[in-house]
Amino acid sequence: MVADGPLRIVFFGTPAFALATLDALLASRHHVVGVVTRPDRPRGRGQKVVDSPVKARAVETRLQLLQPTALKDPSFTRALTTLAPDLGVVAAYGRLLPDSSLAVPRLGLINVHASLLPKYRGAAPVHRAVIAGERETGVTIMRVVKALDAGPMIRSATRPIGPEETSAEIERDLARLGARLLVSVLDDVAAGTAKETPQDETAATYAPPLRKDEGAVAWSLAAPAIHNMIRGLHPWPHAFTHVDGRRLVLLRSAVPGLPAAGPPGVVMASRGDVLRVATGAGAIDLIEIQPEGRRPMTVRDFLAGHRIATGDRLTSR
Predict the structure, then answer these.
(1) Per-residue CA distances from 154 to 47, 110, 112, 131, 172 (Å)
(2) Domain assignments of the chain as residue spans, ordered by start
(3) Is the dihedral of CA 208, 214, 219, 224 positive or negative?
């Protein structure tokens, strides 16, 4: 039986991925009584302090906004309690919630996680799945517990990963998929009829946060692994390489299925639309490149203004 009346929901989220879920909640029959998001921080090249996507939406819709610096601070717990939430919903908030927060909503908290749990628990599930060459991913609605992404699963939905898709495209799609899935389970959670399945701990994997320095391409890797790295690290921190001391960001690539002709990193062909590089196993075609300090460009545009010849060598530094 569905619980009477709409739920009072407090929402925890920060980046663009969380917006679809917040918007879906705002469009549902339930009431978002407050939003908890990370404190403001400098972003971008200019390091200007700007609102996170979730904060901007909360301000726009005049929602009660909380930005605690310390989740265990009693003043935050009191503010959360004052909202009198029935349920907490988490989507990419970015911090583990302490027991004091978990205990406030009478129905606990549920999370929209961008992987098919128990695989890829952690901060970068979409990126790590693409880098690993997975052919399928999805979203899981799960119960929030103190341990990282380890709570019982309520419902999941799958999505294939195309061989040329980037993390940006997949994450954008999963945000919408997760938002729809989340709203579909709210009545079951309210009624206490949601089926919660424990995760298989033996199958759990971890998706650690991305680091800016891990984009350096090791050309000794096989071509598919480098291709997956380029896709997986888009839109941040991006894969990159160097030629003659110049840093090149690699945005798009393809694997032509050809053998390597030369040592890893050596340019096999450089003409027109083709910039083909030898790897540790097979060749890779670079499709879109961004020279440091310049706009992204096709290989044809890049080669028209930058000299890279057959036999030149790309390096990790």
Answers:
(1) 39, 9, 10, 27, 22
(2) 8-207, 212-305
(3) positive
d(CA 118, CA 288): 34
Quote the pLDDT of residue 48.
82
Residues 6+ apart with CB under 8 A from 2: 187, 190, 191
**Residue ranges in the chain modelled with pLDDT below 70:** 1-4, 43-46
In this predicted structure, what is the pLDDT of residue 317? 86
User: What does the alpha-carbon distance between residue 122 and residue 115 come to, in Å, rounded to a whole number?
Assistant: 10
Alpha-carbon gap, residue 278 to 281, rounded angstroms: 8
Check if CATH label 3.40.50.450 holds for domain 8-207: no
Q: Domain 212-305 - what CATH class? A: alpha beta
Q: What are phi and psi of 212, to 5 degrees?
A: -60, -35
